[in-house]
Design brief:
- It is built from six helices and no strands.
- It starts with 7 loop residues before the first helix and ends in a 21-residue tail after the last helix.
Length: 142
């Protein structure tokens, strides 16, 4: 069948769709590579309890506290956070958004050559009176 009926606008739209499909396939391939590089998260029952206690002790922002209430109500679990399934919910993504920004900032500092103690000391969620120790902070919840 002849393609003569296609206007320049239709041809341009087809080209744009083809380019967007190529970009989407490229993004999917990139995401698949990144996912393969991620370490598997092992969240033990003990660690879950520590996280919940940390949140209940008032060491988390209001969004995370609200999420903990949803966990307590049986709507979500911390295992669903660890395996990523909880993040299908927009409100869960929003609750953890600030935490992700803070983790990105920490990674950027580490990539820039700062040592772990400096990164931890400059954590915006770290209490002013907290000194550095070798235990990793739980401020990623904030």
């Amino acid at each position: 069948m002849s393609q003569d009926w296609k206007t320049p606008e239709v041809r341009a739209a087809e080209e744009m769709v083809e380019e967007r499909m190529r970009q989407a396939e490229e993004a999917l391939a990139k995401a698949t590579r990144f996912e393969a590089e991620l370490p598997e998260v092992k969240l033990t029952d003990e660690r879950i309890e520590e996280i919940q206690q940390h949140v209940r002790d008032g060491n988390a922002p209001a969004e995370i506290v609200a999420f903990q209430h949803r966990v307590d109500d049986g709507e979500f679990s911390w295992r669903e956070v660890a395996d990523g399934t909880a993040f299908r919910d927009e409100s869960v993504r929003a609750a953890f958004a600030a935490s992700v920004r803070n983790m990105q900032q920490a990674k950027e500092m580490l990539d820039a050559g700062y040592d772990a103690a400096t990164v931890i000391t400059n954590d915006p969620n770290r209490p002013a009176d907290a000194g550095y120790d070798d235990e990793p902070p739980d401020s990623f919840l904030r």
